[in-house]
Design a protein that fits this description.
The complex is a heterodimer of chains A (417) and B (427).
Chain A: E1 5-8, E2 14-19, E3 25-32, H1 46-53, H2 65-70, E4 74-79, E5 84-91, H3 95-107, H4 113-132, H5 139-147, H6 162-166, H7 170-180, E6 186-192, H8 196-207, E7 230-236, E8 242-248, H9 257-268, H10 274-282, E9 286-293, E10 301-308, H11 314-331, H12 335-352, H13 356-368, H14 374-383, H15 387-397, E11 403-410
Parallel strand pairs in A: 2-6, 7-11
Antiparallel strand pairs in A: 1-2, 3-5, 3-6, 4-5, 8-10, 8-11, 9-10
Chain B: H1 7-10, E1 27-30, E2 35-40, E3 46-54, H2 65-72, H3 82-91, E4 95-100, E5 104-112, H4 116-129, H5 134-152, H6 155-168, H7 180-185, H8 188-198, E6 206-211, H9 215-226, E7 248-251, E8 258-266, H10 275-287, H11 292-300, E9 304-313, E10 318-327, H12 331-347, H13 352-369, H14 373-385, H15 392-402, H16 405-415, E11 422-426
Helix pairs in contact in B: 2-8, 4-9, 10-16, 11-12, 12-16, 13-15
Classes of the chains: A alpha+beta (417), B alpha+beta (427).
């Protein structure tokens, strides 16, 4: 049970506090309700580049990281399709420094052209390192472009291509900040050892005077129901063929999401899971495989990805996978299988709660969904499930008409001299 | 805070340094053979047990034997098939993972407190009754070969492999890496022999338990480990690293967009009197986001997404390594800036605010290594594996507070030598 207190400042900033007297550190987590789904399709990768830019100095503080490091702390951030999340970890006695820094960049940025040029270059190198120069690095671009036709989830958070990042200018950066970075579009959560009265005072002092803004209502195009299978064959200089299959599924906060999350575990988590057992160990079609749900806030995907053994054709592997899925749809789960994945989920949740950083993020996440206590009640949703819920999820989600399929074909690695 | 609305926005809040650490040192729990260190924490109904057994590649007679032994430990015992064993482990919701290191194999058991005894029983069965089946070996060899082929496509993997070879020689356990050729040559008897000879609980093993454990669990662990005690008939093998000479390796690939760069040379051991200061120096050069290399090469120049320097402090050898990935057009400039930053540390004193930042950051870093029972347990394992007591953390703090810019410059001159750095640049 994670205890917390929450309140909202007059300017709309939602605050959640979790006190841990045994800790000597504190974590601040600031979640902004803007992600790559809010981008213009001709300016993709913007939310992520902007996240980098947030460390390039604010209205009154020329450098974000130096004062934090001077206080013995570290900071980082991530952007995903749904949100942009910033966190600081530092000795609890220096917590005020993190609040001072976070509040100033919420108030305003330095907006220096030179910093923008540097961060564009850093993000371009990130793009090359993870998406161009790595085997299967282009996988996410292919997957999302195939599975989504209308919703902005159809591009990855890093951006569709390098030219979008290269083309970003200060005018757009300023407009993005003005539109989305405001206390009434953010969730501040703090976990660690602190004096509550003191922290409330600091929060009011540093954040209380930041004006709220008119945040535009989110009106994203809905992804139409997929009515027939989609297929792509892609060639790349990799060493093994791969099979990627995706099915549209529920959004993270939907009632049906826990059953689909568990379904992905039944299929692919652990060596005794259906796909591992049948397709890796018994039939030896795949060298390795993963099955997971994206857990996005708009309807997401259940993804299967596996690397094929040499000599195994894509069709042979795909047929075998369909057979495994059909068996699950027809016969359902054994009690042991069901108990196993539920226990795994509950253990993972207990492990998650050991880290202050996870607690701070999860409090912010659930607060952003309007139910902060979800951090404590979510496990009950999983406990309520039964084996037939999972079978029903398999029937609902894993249909051929709902599938997007990529045959990722090796052309062999290029020669090294 | 003053009354002016902007002065408190400009002026940083007061900060405090940690001058003394207060953390739970854990309790030593003696067993009939060996001992484990316990770190109690009852905030979650969760327990993690870590066992480090000297049975890694250091002890191999045949390349790959340690790797395949760890892979096959979850592939069936005389009592349980691979399928049944994995199903029983996963049914608990917990996990047993086994990682092969150079010196130790590292067994991690994690689970809710009500399932941990079941996991331990399964582990004891794996350690004493594994069948090391030939057909399972063949499956694992195929899977690992595919993985190695994929890794080999990644410049950073090949660069790390090459630099290790240059540091220690390709026949030394620290310098060699598993290749497909080794996997093709390995026989099931090699794996069985390795397990028989080295897989046991003995006084050289290191163990920790963290979380809400109780006496009953400790007795269960003690009894189980006592059945795995064997007299070691073999002495620890000796391996001599090559005489080190700096070299340069460059490869090109047509469709590559980036180079993986690794620079390295041998360095002092963790027991050396300068080791505390050298860790601080490494931190300044490339140990964190605000380090000299990150500030210059990523934040000022934008050449890379990340660059780090690190000290690889191992049981029998130590090295200093710098690593990054950069676009081809930035390779030469990046090398130039790395050398420039080393020379700055050797020739100039770190001044004023930067010095304060480096010292305070390091201070906070030490605090974080002992913030919870689980992090103290991790620190204990790392230090104990190097033969260093846990309370050396206090000395780490003490030395870092006593360091000054002149001493750090002296350490940079003494322990980093640009001419001795091997260079690996892989496309």
């Amino acid at each position: 049970m994670i205890k917390f207190k929450e309140y909202t400042l007059d300017n709309g900033l939602h605050v959640v506090l979790h006190k841990d007297e045994n800790s000597s550190i504190a974590v601040t987590n600031l979640l902004y309700d803007v992600g790559s789904r809010d981008e213009d399709e001709n300016q993709t990768g913007f939310a992520h580049l902007f996240e980098h830019f947030m460390f390039e100095g604010s209205q009154h503080i020329p450098n974000y990281d130096n004062p934090l490091q001077e206080a013995g702390g570290d900071s980082n951030a991530f952007t995903n399709p749904d949100c942009t999340n910033y966190y600081n970890i530092l000795p609890a006695v220096n917590l005020e420094t993190a609040l001072w820094l976070e509040s100033d960049r919420m108030l305003g940025l330095a907006f220096e052209e030179e910093s923008l040029a540097t961060q564009k270059s850093v993000v371009i190198e990130e793009f090359k390192e993870h998406y161009l120069n790595k085997p299967y690095g282009d996988q996410w671009h292919l997957m999302l472009d195939l599975a989504y036709t209308h919703h902005p989830y159809r591009w990855p958070t890093i951006g569709k291509n390098l030219s979008h990042i290269e083309g970003m200018d200060m005018k757009a950066i300023k407009a993005f900040f003005k539109k989305y970075y405001a206390p009434n579009n953010a969730y501040l959560s703090i976990a660690g050892n602190f004096d509550e009265e003191q922290v409330r005072h600091w929060i009011e002092t540093y954040f209380g005077s930041i004006p709220s803004k008119n945040i535009p209502d989110r009106e994203l195009p809905k992804e139409p129901a997929q009515l027939e299978p989609r297929r792509v064959k892609h060639h790349s200089s990799v060493e093994s063929n791969a099979l990627i299959m995706m099915w549209h599924c529920s959004e993270r906060m939907a009632k049906t999401y826990p059953s689909e999350d568990i379904l992905s575990d039944v299929l692919g988590t652990g060596r005794s899971s259906r796909c591992q057992k049948e397709l890796v160990d018994e039939q030896q079609l795949f060298a390795d495989l993963n099955v997971y749900v994206l857990g996005s806030l708009d309807p997401g995907l259940l993804v299967f990805e596996g690397r094929l053994h040499d000599g195994v054709s894509h069709q042979e592997a795909e047929d075998a996978l369909w057979k495994t899925l059909e068996n699950l749809q027809e016969e359902g789960l054994t009690d042991q299988e069901f108990k196993k994945v539920i226990n795994k989920t509950l253990t993972d949740q207990a492990m998650d709660d050991l880290q202050l950083q996870n607690i701070a993020y999860n409090l912010g996440f659930f607060a952003s969904q309007g139910d902060t206590n979800g951090i404590n009640t979510e496990s009950a949703l999983y406990n309520k499930l039964n084996a037939s819920d999972i079978q029903e999820a398999a029937r609902r989600v894993l249909s051929k008409s709902n599938a997007s399929i990529i045959h990722y074909c090796k052309t062999g690695a290029s020669s090294i001299s | 805070m003053t009354n002016s609305p902007t002065s408190w926005r400009i002026k940083p809040p007061e900060i405090a340094l940690t001058e003394q650490l207060s953390f739970h040192q854990g309790e030593t729990i003696p067993f009939d053979v060996g001992r484990i260190q316990g770190f109690y924490d009852d905030r979650q109904p969760f327990i993690q047990i870590d066992l480090l057994i000297p049975a890694g590649t250091w002890f191999e007679s045949q390349y790959g034997a340690a790797q395949m032994m760890t892979s096959l430990l979850k592939s069936g015992t005389r009592n349980l098939s691979s399928e049944a064993l994995n199903a029983l482990i996963e049914e608990t919701g917990g996990n047993i993972s086994i990682q092969r290191g150079t010196y130790y194999i590292h067994i991690i058991i994690q689970g809710l407190n009500h399932s941990i005894e079941i996991l331990l029983d399964l582990l004891f069965d794996m350690l004493s009754e594994s069948v090391f089946d030939e057909s399972e070996l063949s499956k694992r060899v195929t899977i690992l070969s595919n993985k190695l082929r994929r890794l080999h496509q990644q410049p950073e993997y090949r660069a790390s492999k090459e630099i290790s070879k240059l540091l220690y020689g390709e026949n030394h356990p620290y310098g060699r890496s598993l290749d497909i050729q080794h996997l093709e040559e390995i026989k099931i008897q090699d794996v069985r022999d390795h397990a028989k000879q080295w897989l046991s609980w003995n006084t050289d093993c290191i163990g920790t338990i963290a979380g809400c454990y109780n006496h009953r669990l400790i007795n269960h662990l003690s009894n189980g480990l006592s059945t795995l005690t064997k007299d070691r008939s073999s002495s620890i093998p000796e391996h001599e690293a090559i005489a080190y000479h700096a070299k340069k390796i460059v490869t090109q690939r047509q469709d590559s967009t980036q180079h993986a760069i690794r620079l390295a040379h041998p360095t002092i051991s963790a027991h050396h009197e300068d080791a505390y200061g050298l860790r601080f120096l490494n931190n300044v050069l490339g140990g964190f986001f605000g380090s000299r290399l990150m500030s210059n090469i990523r934040e000022d120049k934008g050449y890379t997404y990340g660059i780090q320097s690190s000290l690889h402090q191992l049981k029998f050898s130590n090295s200093f390594i710098i690593g990054t990935e950069v676009a081809h057009q930035y390779t030469e400039a990046t090398l130039h800036e790395i050398f420039h930053e080393i020379q700055r540390l050797q020739n100039e004193l770190i001044e004023g605010r930067e010095w304060r930042m480096m010292q305070n950051y390091y201070n906070g870093l030490i605090l974080r290594t002992v913030n919870s029972a689980f992090s103290v347990a991790k620190t204990y394992r790392r230090l104990t594996s190097l033969g260093i007591p846990l309370d050396s953390i206090h000395k780490d703090l003490e030395v870092s507070l006593a360091l000054n810019p002149t001493k750090v410059r002296e350490l940079a001159r003494k322990h980093i030598d640009i001419d001795q750095l091997s260079q690996v640049i892989i496309a």
